[in-house]
Amino acid sequence: MRLILNVLWFIFGSGFLLAIGYGVAALICFALVITIPFGVAALRLAAYSLWPFGRTVVSKPEAGVATGLANIVWVVVAGWWLALTHIVAGVAQCVTIIGIPFGIANFKLVPVAFWPLGRDIVDLDHAPAYASTR
Q1: What mean pLDDT comes out for the span 83-106?
Q2: Signal sequence: where (predicted)?
Q3: Domain residues for 85?
Q4: What is the pTM of this model?
Q5: Which of 8, 25, 36, 81 is the most buried (most CB within 10 A)?
Q6: DSSP element (H, E) containing 57
Q7: What does 75-133 look like in DSSP terms, one character per residue?
């Protein structure tokens, strides 16, 4: 079922367009050397937005104060409008019954688009094991 939802998301749920957008943002961040951590986060978002079903976001407990400060910069520069875009798209997709899974996928992207640093994206099957080793 995950494969079918991911393929439909890729084609109809704007997964491909989101991945391209996050990929371009990552390239810009890599060009501006000081923003490389944001580029890595944008690449993670690109991969997650390309294939979201069957994966989840988990926090990294070892993330420190620098990660929190960088997340604040991210929220001010890009995070708030990215999260708002995912919320609006999710609500619009939930209007139809067929679009509800795609709306839920957009809602899953909101927290990581708003606050991406200090988080990992893992398979749902590995999430409990990931949390217990941390």
Answers
A1: 90
A2: none
A3: 2-121
A4: 0.81
A5: 25
A6: strand 55-59
A7: IIIIIHHHHHHHHHHHHHHTTSTTTHHHHHHHHHHHHHHHS-TTEEEEETTTHHHHHHH
What whole-number distance in Å separates Cα of residue 51 and Cα of residue 73? 27
Count of structural domains, the chain: 1
- DSSP 3-state of 38: helix
pLDDT tens, 68-81? 898 898 898 888 88
Cα dist from 2 to 64, 65, 76, 119, 130, whole Å: 34, 36, 34, 22, 20
| Residues 6+ away with beta carbon under 8 Å from 20 | 46
Is the residue at 75 inside a domain?
yes
Please check whether residue 133 lies inside any domain of the structure: no
- Compute the half-sphere exposure of residue 95: CA atoms within 13 Å on the CB side of its CA: 6
Predicted pLDDT at 77: 85
Report CA-CA distances (Å) from 42 to 31, 82, 98, 134. Answer: 13, 11, 28, 24
Answer left, alpha or beta for residue 118, where phi above 0 means left and psi between -120 and 50 means alpha. Answer: left
Backbone angles phi, psi at 120, to 5 degrees: -120, 150
